Amino acid sequence: MPAVLFDFSGTLFRVESTESWLRAVLAEAAVSLPEPELTATAQALETAGALPGGADPARLPEDLAGVWAVRDESAELHRAAYTGLSRRVPLPDPGLHDALYERHMSPAAWSPYPDTAEVLRTLRERGVAVGVVSNIGWDLRPVFRAHGLDAYVDAYVLSYEHGVQKPDPRLFSVACEALGAAPREVLMVGDSRPADGGAAALGCRVHFVDHLPVAERPDALLPVLDLVGQPGRPVQPR
After folding, report:
1. What global pTM score does this model have?
2. Is the dihedral of CA 222, 227, 228, 229 positive or negative?
3. Tell me, what's the pLDDT at 229?
4. How far apart are CA 211 and CA 190, in angstroms?
């Protein structure tokens, strides 16, 4: 029986915009900024790459290069990398940097792509096992639960829980074992060719989607339903 592995950020879900992220934290802290300053600060945070799941840093500071390279191998490294980047941007209160990091882990900060529920539900109806394999430094399970999608996921394989990050084939191997599927039966779906493409080394097929804002990508996941085949039909080659 075929199985499907999905990446999380940029594949099934997308994090809110940097401006929305900053506005939510300022509102929670009852801190106000003049609109031009708020907009400029949000842009500076985006350029810094401070929002996990958002844009990569435009320029990675040398003193953070080491932790950045392994940021998804532990919760501590992940927090250090991203708060280190956000602290490059002045905020009215130094405590806001930690508040920003906490905000990005909340279910409210994430939106599923329009076709995520349909694809996951259909795979479940067909008896196809589903796993989520993510380079991440925190537990994303509450995000799936809050959006009513946890029931469609059979296994979560998160880099920080295993101390290894994609593209290392070991993470994909753990996921295949968790689903009881041989790699040749597995389709990996992700938005990062360097990271998610690592599944190919294990023998999995790989299908890529674009990491776009939710409103700009309504149906990119639907082809997955054809790639894993219909009940009683052979899997079609990519």
Report:
1. 0.94
2. positive
3. 67
4. 9
